[in-house]
Automatic annotation (TrEMBL), chain A:
Bilayer-spanning residue ranges: 20-39, 46-66, 72-92, 104-123, 155-174, 195-225, 237-260, 272-291
Protein name: Branched-chain amino acid ABC transporter permease
MF GO annotations: transmembrane transporter activity
Organism: Geothermobacter hydrogeniphilus
InterPro entries per record: ABC_transp_permease, BCAA_transport_permease
UniProtKB/TrEMBL annotation, chain B:
Name of protein: Branched-chain amino acid ABC transporter permease
PANTHER family linked: ABC TRANSPORTER ATP-BINDING PROTEIN, HIGH-AFFINITY BRANCHED-CHAIN AMINO ACID TRANSPORT SYSTEM PERMEASE
Organism: Geothermobacter hydrogeniphilus
Keywords of the record: Cell membrane, Membrane, Transmembrane, Transmembrane helix
Membrane-spanning segments: 6-24, 31-56, 76-95, 102-119, 160-179, 209-234, 246-271, 278-297
GO cellular component term, pick one: plasma membrane
Membrane topology: Multi-pass membrane protein
From TrEMBL, chain C:
Residues in the signal sequence: 1-23
Phylogenetic classification of the source organism: Bacteria, Pseudomonadati, Thermodesulfobacteriota, Desulfuromonadia, Desulfuromonadales
SUPFAM superfamilies registered for this protein in UniProt: Periplasmic binding protein-like I
Similarity comment text for this entry: Belongs to the leucine-binding protein family.
Protein name, entry field: ABC transporter permease
Domain Leucine-binding protein span(s) in chain numbering: 31-367
Length: 301, 318, 404
């Protein structure tokens, strides 16, 4: 394949598109990990759930309510899906995860792994694995924009922009606001923060809810691009794990940067040696582990 | 009491193919050995590997390939498969052994994905179709493992069954010895209090690495044997779902108990066989099992039973 | 203790050896047909429960009995995993005494089952797998390849598309044996018809984002973008090609393996104008319409070529038993090889010595939304290609059991 600068730029743009999803998902994992010390294996399944909320809201909600012409539109889905999934997250945290804080953190990983299997299994039973098209893409986001070096679909541009906006807003809240400072303090020393009269258990619950809400948000953003399928999250989550390992889980900005740059790396791989596209991140991970075992932005434990 | 229990289990193992469909029993034994090998790592070092399928499946491919294409006898095939898994375990170990807890789990998971990629791409694995048509061969060049006996109208592959059974017993015995040796005791000490073990002068990392390599090798033995039983090695063997399943088997039976993984493996494999007609509901049931197990009986079946026996008031002892 | 155990071991072994039974040929009092298909995975819409329904219909239409013995159906999910397919087939052969296994939606599963069939003398009729290896290097005296293969499909579609002006091709190929074989065969036919191949890109199986690959295809300037993949990959690629304006830019997309359910899932708006090869289309003629409407009444969707193929395969198998007067697999296979297979599915069909069921193939085109009069009115048949032209000839093949 001839590598003109246009080709490279175009692939980098597409890589940025994937990277934006990696960033928002690994950021959610990092936020949850920061306060709860667990790796949320269900993150991929909840991302899938977010996409399904959008899909079912568009296709099925109307008929269900007896209004066959009613479709929950894209913008509403962007708001509703994170809320629904976030609420589910709150329930999961309150009824299950909470009981595991005193035991080895690995049990949290195993529990969420189980939850991921349940969600994936149930949806596989009712929906085709090869995916369903989401047709609710708003009119304004259809078509393509001329970027000089390529025609880039408007929706993809939007998906990059909105994902990054959410990432940076999260970064801002955690690193620059008072609420964020409580969170960070809670990460360092929960009992001290509790002593200052802050409701740490509530903070933990809401953090989990927020983290999985971000996954659902990413799911809605992904719905019009990819087919909505029960397994859309299960392979993605493994890749995102590798992203998290490469970045290290120390910093918010680290997650964002790693996600974006690995997406672009994947994009380039798709031109240079396509069959490795799904695996290049794992090779990258081995490389990073050899050179800097704590991850690019991580702190040594 | 223990001696009697072992003898009874051994006899049950010998008689099993006459009572239950032998291929199914062989499958049970392979997974039980896999889970026992996995348990050696998590139960005695506290390291949760989420990439053990790499050793299981990797060895299955190596053995399958060599038996099929290089004409290795089955016992040599299994030995080479085991060694190959051990070597992979050594390489994985060097990369991961300093990490702990969740990092360790995630890194092993990601490394296993690389092995999956290789299994998908390498010219000798058969890609999506898997490595098929693995012959069962002649044990020591003498006994035909593919031979089928017909007992009361039922086809029984007894040669193969006892071959698998012996491998299982040897593997189980090695794990049992390792656990009850000074090595096993030191591992436990490390798990309980690593800094103290270091201060006592133990080379903690090297010991953990050794445990990892043994665990990987025996997982390989299980995978190698499986490739002979089913005459194929496929991507399922190296996929992360298999890694997850072995975690479940061990957890369900009881982490760090000798018999737990066997019980867990039997439960999970039987569950999958029973539910196979229900499609994706198998996944749901396995997920629910995970959740229930983590929430309400973290010690697993065997662990809970042992705990009951231990905490029983002395007066009630018989 | 140990001594006694040893005695027990030797004892049981000798007992086992002594009881080796030579009683083959006497069949159980029931003809058992197993449908092994994908119930939950990517191919479940192509085969799945629909295949089971089709098999049930075939048995019911046959009267539920053959040679006075009842016909029983069992089914299971192979999840597209060769190890599961192999385990299940082995169990069916050993404990359920199944006589024939059909379904088999991917090549790995079909190869595994055909292999076990050879060992256990169980007939396997693959209706969904594409790989030509089933009837060549891995062919079996008990294996039948019923619906299509990766030779016939591109031969019918590839040549026709080049002849109508699609001279230059670029392939998007699923990176595994099936995709490679499809790409290789299509490329050969394209060249044979005077077209040329400008390049190809191999994508991992189950890719969700095709944009990079599509851009490479676009940049190649090829007239035709050949999709040597199937199912979800095919659907995603076609959808995203539209998103990037590839079809609007004048390039055509050609799917090498397309099912009716894929077209339904994409919608006519996206899929219109596409040419592809198929073994069967429900609205092809009177007989196919009649059967398909009955099928539709039971399942709520029109049959894919695999589902129709299962019905035809089961019926052919039962007819052969009746004709042979036994369910002995050797006799049944011999009878099937001597039969003409003509029904609503297969036209001018006959089973060859290598296991290939050769029948007429069809080139179809997806209708424009304006041409479609009903929800399932999706395709029009453009050309009928005689089986001997479409399928690989015996002389070209490499099946070891065929005497040349």
């Amino acid at each position: 394949m001839h590598l003109s600068y246009q080709v490279v730029l175009a692939q980098l743009m597409l890589g940025l598109n994937i990277g934006a999803f990696y960033a928002i998902l690994s950021l959610g994992l990092a936020v949850i990990f920061g306060l709860l010390n667990i790796i949320n294996f269900a993150h991929g399944a909840l991302y899938m759930l977010g996409a399904f909320v959008a899909l079912l809201g568009y296709n099925e909600l109307g008929p269900l309510l007896g209004m066959p012409d009613f479709h929950m539109n894209y913008w509403t889905a962007l708001l509703v899906a994170p809320l629904v999934v976030g609420f589910l997250g709150v329930l999961i945290e309150k009824t299950m995860l909470r009981r595991l804080y005193k035991v080895d953190h690995l049990y949290g990983l195993l529990l969420t792994f189980g939850l991921a299997l349940i969600l994936q299994g149930v949806f596989t039973n009712y929906f085709n694995v090869s995916g369903i098209s989401y047709n609710g893409k708003p009119e304004i986001l259809r078509g393509a924009v001329n970027l000089k070096f390529m025609m880039f679909p408007t929706y993809r541009l939007w998906s990059i922009a909105i994902s990054l906006a959410v990432c940076f807003a999260t970064w801002f809240v955690i690193e620059r606001t008072k609420l964020g400072s409580y969170l960070r303090a809670g990460t360092e020393n929960p009992s001290l923060v509790q002593a200052f009269g802050i409701n740490v258990p509530l903070m933990i619950t809401l953090t989990y809810g927020f983290g999985v809400g971000m996954a659902a948000f990413a799911g809605v953003v992904a719905a019009p691009i990819y087919s909505v399928s029960p397994i859309m999250g299960s392979e993605l989550i493994i890749t995102v794990f590798a992203v998290v390992v490469i970045g290290g889980m120390g910093s918010i900005m680290g997650s964002i940067c790693t996600g974006l740059s690995l997406g672009m790396l994947e994009g380039l791989t798709k031109v240079i040696y396509p069959p490795a596209a799904n695996t290049v991140i794992f090779f990258m991970m081995i490389l990073v582990l050899l050179v800097k075992p704590e991850g690019l932005f991580g702190k040594e434990q | 009491m223990n001696r009697k229990l072992w003898a009874a289990l051994f006899l049950a193992g010998l008689a099993a193919p006459f009572l239950i469909y032998p291929v199914f029993v062989m499958q049970l034994l392979c997974f039980a050995l896999f889970a026992c090998a996995f348990n050696l790592l998590i139960g005695y070092t506290g390291l949760l590997s989420f990439g053990h399928a790499a050793f299981f499946g990797g060895a299955a491919y190596v053995t399958g390939y060599l038996v099929k294409n290089a004409g290795l006898t089955p016992e040599l095939g299994v030995i080479v498969g085991t060694l190959a898994a051990g070597l992979m375990g050594y390489i994985f170990g060097i990369l991961t052994i300093r990490r702990q807890g969740i990092y360790f789990a995630m890194i092993t998971l990601a490394l296993a994905q690389v092995i999956y990629f290789i299994a998908l791409k390498a010219p000798f694995t058969g890609g999506e179709d898997g490595l098929q048509d693995v012959p069962r061969g002649m044990f020591l060049g003498l006994v035909d493992l593919g031979h089928t006996y017909h007992v009361a109208g039922k086809p029984l592959e007894l040669n193969l069954y006892y071959f698998v059974f012996i491998i299982f017993c040897i593997g189980f015995w090695i794990i049992h010895r390792a656990i009850h040796s000074p090595f096993g005791q030191i591992l436990k000490a490390i798990r309980e209090n690593e800094p103290r073990a270091i201060s006592l002068g133990y080379k903690v990392e090297r010991l953990k690495l050794l445990a990892f390599v043994i665990s990987a090798s025996l997982a390989g033995t299980a995978g190698a044997t499986k490739s002979l039983v089913f005459q194929l090695a496929s991507l399922t063997d190296v996929s992360w779902h298999t890694s997850g399943e072995v975690v479940l088997m061990t957890l369900l039976g009881g982490l760090g108990t000798v018999l737990g993984p066997v019980v867990g493996a039997f439960t999970v494999v039987a569950l999958q066989a029973e539910l196979s007609a229900f499609g994706s509901w198998v996944t749901v049931v396995i997920g629910v099992t995970f959740v229930v197990c983590v929430l309400s009986f973290r010690r697993g079946f065997v662990g809970e039973v042992l705990e009951k026996i231990r905490t029983r008031p002395p007066g009630q002892n018989d | 203790m140990k001594k006694r155990l040893m005695q027990f071991v030797t004892g049981t072994t000798i007992l086992g050896m002594a009881m080796v039974a030579g009683a083959a040929g006497i069949s159980t009092d029931v003809v058992k047909i197993g449908v092994l298909t994908d119930m939950s995975g990517v191919y479940s819409a192509i085969g799945g429960k629909g295949s089971v329904t089709a098999a049930k219909m075939a048995i019911a239409d046959f009267g539920g009995k053959v040679l006075g013995k009842p016909i029983k159906l069992i089914s299971a999910d192979h999840q597209n995993k060769a190890d599961i397919a192999s385990t299940k087939a082995r169990e069916w052969a050993d404990t359920d005494h199944v006589d024939m296994i059909t379904g088999l939606l991917n090549s790995g599963c079909a190869l595994a089952v055909q292999k076990i069939g050879t060992e256990k003398k169980v007939i396997s009729i693959a209706t969904g797998a594409g790989s030509t290896t089933l009837t060549n290097e891995h062919c079996s005296p008990y294996g039948v390849h019923y619906v299509y293969d990766t030779y016939a499909l591109p031969k019918v579609a590839g040549g026709a598309i080049v002849d109508t002006g699609g001279k230059s091709w670029f392939f998007l190929t699923a990176d595994y044996a099936f995709g490679h074989s499809l790409e290789k065969n299509t490329a050969a036919f394209v060249k044979a018809h005077g077209g040329k191949v400008l390049g190809q890109v191999r994508h991992p199986l189950a890719t969700s984002d095709f944009s990079s690959y599509l851009l490479q295809a676009q940049a190649s300037g090829a007239k035709v973008i050949g999709l040597a993949n199937a199912g979800g990959d095919f659907i995603n690629a076609v959808k995203q090609a539209r998103e990037f304006g590839i079809v609007q830019g004048g390039q055509t997309i050609a799917g090498m393996l397309v099912f009716l359910s894929d077209v339904k899932s994409l919608g006519l708006d996206v899929a219109q104008g596409m040419n592809f090869a198929t073994s069967f289309y429900w609205d092809r003629d009177e007989a196919s319409r009649k059967w398909s409407q009955r099928y539709f009444a039971k399942t709520g969707s029109m049959p894919t070529m695999n589902q129709a193929g299962v019905y035809s395969a089961v019926t052919t198998y039962l007819k052969a038993i009746k004709k042979a007067g036994t369910d002995n697999p050797d006799a049944v296979m011999k009878t099937m090889r001597g039969m003409k297979i003509n029904d609503f599915f297969s036209i001018n069909g006959h089973l060859r010595a290598d296991g290939s069921m050769v029948h007429d193939m069809f080139l179809v085109e997806v209708k424009k939304p304006s041409e479609s009069k009903a929800p399932w009115d999706l395709l029009k048949v453009i050309k009928q290609v005689p089986g001997d032209e479409a399928f690989m000839s015996l002389a070209e093949g490499s099946c070891s059991t065929v005497k040349k």
